[in-house]
Design brief:
Layout: H1 2-12, E1 16-17, E2 20-21, E3 31-35, H2 39-51, E4 55-59, H3 62-69, E5 88-92, H4 100-109, E6 118-122, H5 127-136, E7 140-143, H6 148-171, H7 175-186, H8 204-207, H9 219-228
Parallel strand pairs: 3-4, 3-5, 5-6, 6-7
Antiparallel strand pairs: 1-2
Length: 229
């Protein structure tokens, strides 16, 4: 039994190759590329993602992330891992060499990877920085320390996105069109708030209409609410 435990432990050990942590599971759905120059913060986000049943590839810089995606012209054919599909990129904002914002811009400029959601992490709650990242196309902005609830929220969003992508593939339509149709079907009708309106009160079903699965809760609003508390 001891030998079997040793074999099992050995198989579960993280494989480190050229700066990439490639320890993943074949049974998990969402593959996340995590980028952080801090070894401690990188291990924290890795652990939270794995607790949430995500595949994780962790790198320590924006350049490493671009290398993994095959976006470095000088290394595109030698060090990229084309067989691993990335569903989400989560990156620290403040990193030497290339910031998370600069990495975000590089990804959104790529025709091959611009559709991959990018989440920015930062230890500073700076609204101007948050707005800047969101305008550039970031999906969300998380203030460190990252909590399990943050990761689960992102995982739930990504699971819906993957499900929608599969549905779009089966129906032979564009995922964006399917998302738009879901947005329209889930949006509650507009209700006039004028005191002169004699229309009956909206039913509970209208008030509790589901939020669109196409985006996460507004990080700016969420962080403002946190600050006010």
């Amino acid at each position: 039994m001891a030998r079997n435990e040793a074999v099992s432990w050995g198989r579960s050990m993280e494989k480190i190759e050229d700066g990439f942590d490639l320890s993943t599971s074949d049974t998990e759905e969402v593959h996340v590329l995590a980028v952080d120059d801090s070894h401690v913060d990188r291990k924290v986000i890795e652990r939270l993602l794995r607790i949430s049943s995500c595949k994780v590839t962790a790198v320590d810089s924006g350049r490493r992330a671009l290398q993994f995606l095959g976006l470095l012209d000088d290394e595109k054919n030698s060090n990229s891992f084309d067989g691993l599909k990335v569903d989400l990129i989560i990156t620290d904002y403040c990193m030497p060499g290339m910031t998370g914002y600069e990495l975000l811009k590089k990804i959104k400029e790529s025709s091959a990877f611009r559709e991959i959601p990018v989440v920015i992490m930062s230890s500073e709650n700076v609204l101007a920085r948050i707005d800047r990242c969101l305008e550039e196309g970031a999906e969300d902005f998380i203030v460190k320390p990252v909590k399990l609830s943050d990761v689960k929220r992102i995982k739930d969003y990504m699971t819906r996105e993957l499900r929608m992508e599969g549905e779009a593939g089966r129906r032979g339509i564009n995922k964006r069109k399917l998302r738009d149709s879901c947005d329209l079907s889930s949006s509650p009708p507009s209700i006039l708030s004028s005191p002169l309106s004699q229309s009956p009160s909206p039913s509970p079903s209208i008030l509790s209409a589901p939020c669109s699965p196409s985006s996460l809760d507004s990080p700016t609003t969420r962080l403002k609410m946190t600050s006010s508390e």
